[in-house]
Write a structure and sequence with these properties.
Layout (H helix, E strand, L loop, with lengths): L1 H41 L2 E16 L4 E6 L6 E2 L4 E5 L2 H58 L3 H30 L3 H30 L3 H33 L5 H30 L3 H30 L3 H30 L3 H57 L2 E3 L4 E6 L6 E2 L4 E18 L11 E6 L6 E8 L4 E2 L7 H4 L2 E9 L11 E7 L2
Antiparallel strand pairs: 1-8, 1-13, 2-4, 2-7, 3-6, 4-5, 6-8, 8-12, 9-10, 9-13, 10-12, 11-12
Helix pairs in contact: 2-9, 3-8, 4-7, 5-6
């Protein structure tokens, strides 16, 4: 009985000790929480947690097809424009070949039609112009016949008859002269012409020889003497002019006398310049161009001499048979012309005959029919020209199809839109990808941020541009950072936050951009963020 009571007392003591210990623990916990809260509220920063994120780009192909090459692996760094994948291009190449063949055929058709049209247009236009001119001529001829010969036309025909008779008479005199042979007077005149030509050649040659030999001494002496004489006269007239000026100032001589003295001095000075120029030319000797011109004169004189000698030889040889036959042929032609003009004049004076009017009317009708036919052909050519325009348009459309096929073929090569790191390969080589489907995911290591969630009561303390720090495991020093984005609307704490109580609070998403020039931060790393409340 005593043992039982002692056991109960020991049990009560133990329970009391346990209760006291629990009370102490609870008090300590409450005190710690209170002190921690007071300390947190008194700090100058907000401590938040998040995950390092990066900008991702889904790279796909604008055309669908089988993936034949994946040129990168996960984790590879790529540059902007670097080819990272290729999609099968058999269909695109076939389409391009088909489009090029169609374009070649269309261009060939266009060239053929254009060449034919160009030739036909030129011929048709020329034919229309020719037939219209023929119709105008025929119409004018008929109108002339119906109106009868005008007086001025008859006068023109009479003048033409007189001219034809004069030509016939000249041809007759020519035949008579050739038949009689050359006269002695003509031969003498030809010999005199030969002699004059010979003298001209000798004179021209002498001039050349003189120029080549240079200026003679007596010519130089004469030129120097002329300069001395001109200088003496110039000096005298100059002195006279100065003396006359003084006398005029004193009122001894008149203004006319002074002007005459000045004129004489000016003329003497000009004579002196002329004489000095002549002396200079004489001392320099003849120029090369002067000798060249003199030689050309010699050549011309010799050519005239040959012509005069040939003319004399013809006269001395007498009339040639061929010259006489040619003159008689010209006489026959002149007589025929006279007869034709005489008949036309007689027809004009008599007026048109019914037969002439009938023939002229028939010619007008034929010319009209020819114009109508030429215009029909020109219209047919214009239709062909429209066909050429249609062929040109078809060739342009075919070229456009080729351009589209080439552009589509280039799209089978998938380049990187910008620099980055391959995060994931979303297809396997050999798979068939649809147009626009993501083939590779790229991340930009230079565009990193950490998203944290600020409780609503603390949001007023956070502003864009605010200084912050980002700390991650494995790095002793935190990374300087800056707040660059704050959500406009509140949301509940994301589901991955641990406790239900924390998830039930309203928070605002805030993005902080760390400075990491060495690339030590990686997407997906847990991070602690401190936003300083400056």
């Amino acid at each position: 009985m005593l043992r039982a009571r002692c056991g109960e007392e020991r049990m009560k003591q133990r329970l009391a000790l346990i209760l006291v210990a629990l009370a102490i623990i609870a008090g300590v916990s409450l005190g710690w929480r209170y002190l921690a809260g007071e300390r947190a509220s008194a700090t100058d920063w907000l401590e938040l947690s998040g995950t390092v994120e990066a900008r991702t780009t889904e790279v796909g192909s604008e055309v669908g097809g089988r993936v034949v090459k994946l040129l990168v692996r996960e984790g590879d760094k790529v540059l902007a424009g670097e080819v990272i994948a290729e999609v099968a291009s058999e269909i695109g190449e076939a389409r391009l070949s088909q489009a090029e063949a169609g374009a070649d055929a269309a261009e060939q058709r266009h060239q053929q039609v254009s060449a034919a049209t160009s030739v036909q247009e030129g011929v048709a236009e020329a034919e229309v112009a020719r037939t219209e001119r023929a119709l105008e001529t025929a119409t004018a001829r008929l109108a002339e016949l119906l109106a009868g010969a005008r007086p001025e036309v008859i006068r023109e025909a009479e003048a033409a008859l007189g001219q034809a008779k004069a030509q016939a008479e000249a041809a007759r005199e020519r035949v008579a002269a050739l038949t009689a042979g050359p006269r002695a007077q003509e031969i003498e005149q030809a010999r005199a012409a030969v002699e004059r030509a010979r003298a001209a050649v000798e004179g021209a040659q002498a001039r050349v020889d003189e120029l080549r030999s240079g200026t003679r001494k007596q010519d130089l002496d004469q030129a120097r003497a002329a300069v001395d004489k001109a200088r003496a006269r110039a000096d005298k007239t100059q002195k006279d002019a100065q003396r006359m000026r003084r006398l005029h100032e004193d009122g001894v001589v008149s203004a006319d006398q002074l002007e005459r003295a000045r004129t004489a001095a000016t003329a003497a000075a000009e004579d002196l310049r002329t004489a000095e120029a002549a002396l200079s030319r004489a001392e320099e000797g003849p120029r090369a161009e002067s000798i060249t011109m003199a030689e050309a004169d010699v050549a011309q004189a010799r050519a005239q001499q040959r012509q005069a000698q040939e003319a004399l030889a013809l006269l001395e040889a007498g009339t040639r048979g061929e010259d006489l036959r040619a003159a008689r042929a010209q006489l026959d032609q002149a007589n025929q012309q006279v007869e034709a003009v005489r008949q036309r004049l007689a027809a004009l004076r008599a007026g048109p005959t019914p037969e002439q009017i009938t023939v002229a009317s028939r010619q007008v009708e034929e010319a009209r029919a020819a114009v109508h036919l030429a215009r029909q052909k020109a219209h047919e050519v214009s239709v062909t020209a429209k066909q050429a325009e249609a062929a040109a348009a078809e060739a342009n459309r075919a070229d456009a199809v080729v351009s589209e096929a080439e552009a589509a073929l280039h799209k089978h090569v998938v380049p990187a839109p910008g620099p980055g790191i391959v995060d994931s390969l979303n297809v396997e080589q050999g798979e068939v990808a649809s147009p626009g489907a993501s083939l590779i995911t790229l991340i930009n290591p230079d565009d990193l941020w950490v998203t944290v969630y600020v409780p609503e009561p603390d949001l007023a303390k956070v502003k864009i541009g605010q200084r912050a720090e980002v700390a991650v495991d494995g790095q002793e020093q935190p990374f300087p950072a800056e707040v660059y984005w704050i959500a406009e609307e509140a949301e509940f704490t994301p589901k991955y936050i641990r406790t239900k109580r924390e998830r039930a609070r309203l928070v605002y998403a805030v993005k902080v951009r760390p400075q990491d020039p060495l690339g030590r931060l990686k997407p997906g790393m847990p991070a602690d963020v401190a936003i300083f409340l400056d």
